[in-house]
Each structure stands twice: as structure tokens, then as C-alpha cells.
Amino acid sequence: MKGGKREGKGVRNLFVDKGSHAAYFGDMGRAHRAAEGGYVYHVLNRANARMTIFNDAGDYQAFEQVLIEAVERTATRLLAYCVLPNHWHLLVWPTADGELSRFVGWLTLTHTQRWHAHRHSTGSGHVYQGRFKSFPVQEDEHFYAVARYGRIQRGQDSLIPLAAVSRLADMPRP
């Protein structure tokens, strides 16, 4: 605190310990995402301001390469994915608690860094509109609907070739 004003972002709470008659301020960061391992998740992230982040086949291939590296870095199993001009969907199956956030965090950070480097725009703003969204897949119908969505969208307005899907499907899994 400086001059009675708090610096930085986030929520500031006053905690009082009645036993020692002491009080202190504590920052409350963003809550950790509850993503247990062993469950299948539908994950998606969208481009900032609806901008197109995948303009041509090279952009899709670059994202696919980062996706392959993310799978290799973790024990996360990639079951299906769909990449559209301004967002993407993944069906993933992390093996350990907290792995989903590490997997997607590394994926989005690395993709953002490489995207900016390729365009010589490093430091010029966000690529993604915010934190990724994830939903546990609780019913077979949800799983199949997400998997079908990818097939339908690829045929309509995605530039990613179907051959890329089979290359990822053939990747070895831990």
C-alpha cells in the first residue's frame, strides 16, 4: 500500500486473527480451475475481438505443431480437435489433477508468442480474448456432439485439412 491506496489488480481482503489481535491484508488471486485428471474435457478458446488468427494453411499448421508439442510435454491425451479462423475446440483427457491448466496454458502462451513473432508484432496485444473455457464431458451425447462439431465445421469453414486430423490421431500416447 502506498499512501493508503492499494497498488495492482485483484481483490484485497482484511483478515483479522482474534487470537493474536493482529490484522493483515491478503490478495485474492483468481481461483484455480477445478479440473481433475481422469476426465474428458471440452476446451475452447477464442481470438480477441473476433479477429482472425488462422488466415492460411501455414497458420493452421503452426498451431498444429504447437498442439503436438503440448501433447508431447504432458500426459494429456488429445481425442479430437477443431480449428476455425477465430477459435478452436479440443477434446482432451488429462491424466492428473491440474494437468488441464498446465496443458492449455502452455499451448496458448506458446501459440501466442509464436504468432506474434511470425507477424513481427511482439508486445502489441492479446491474441486470445481471455482465459480458456473448459467443460467436463459428462454424457456420451456431449462427447459425440463435440466430436461431430469438429467434422461439420471443418467441412464448412475451416482450412485445416483432414489429413492433419489423422496425423494427430496416429501420434503415440503415453
Keywords:
two-stranded antiparallel ribbon; globular; alpha+beta; single chain; 4 helices; 174 residues; disordered N terminus; disordered C terminus; 22% strand
Write structural notes for this entry.
The chain has 174 residues and is α+β, with helices and mostly antiparallel strands. The longest helix has 21 residues, at 99-119. Strands 4-5-3-6 form a four-stranded antiparallel beta sheet. A two-stranded antiparallel sheet has the order 1-2. Mean pLDDT is 76; it is low at 1-6 and 155-174. Helix 1 (57-73) runs antiparallel to helix 2 (99-119). It has helices spanning 57-73, 99-119, 140-157, 162-169; strands at residues 11-17, 22-28, 41-46, 77-84, 87-93, 133-136. It is globular. The protein is built from four helices and six strands. Strand 4 and strand 5 (87-93) form a beta hairpin. The termini are far apart.
